[in-house]
Amino acid sequence: MEFPIEDLLNFIYLLYDALRKGIQVILEATIIKASPILAEKYADAISLLITITSIWLLLEFSTGVKKIVRAIVILGWVLLMVSILISILG
Hints:
Blueprint: H1 5-29, H2 36-59, H3 66-89
C-alpha cells in the first residue's frame, strides 16, 4: 500500500490550521476581545511558535542544531509577548 506524500502534508496542514483556528478562538474570547484582526495575527504567531517549540523539543536530544533553534524559540516567544503587551497597553 502506497502512501502519497501529498496526503501526509495535507494532514499536517489540517492539524496546523485547526491549531491556529483554535488559538484564534481562545484569543478572541479572552485576551483580545476588541480586535479580531489582532487575534488572527497573534494566533498565526503563536501557532508558528508552538510548531517551532515542538521541533526544538524533538531536537533536544541532538546537539548540533539545538543552540540555534533554542535562540530562535526564546527570541520568538519574547517578541510575541512584548508585541501583545504593546498592543494591549497602547
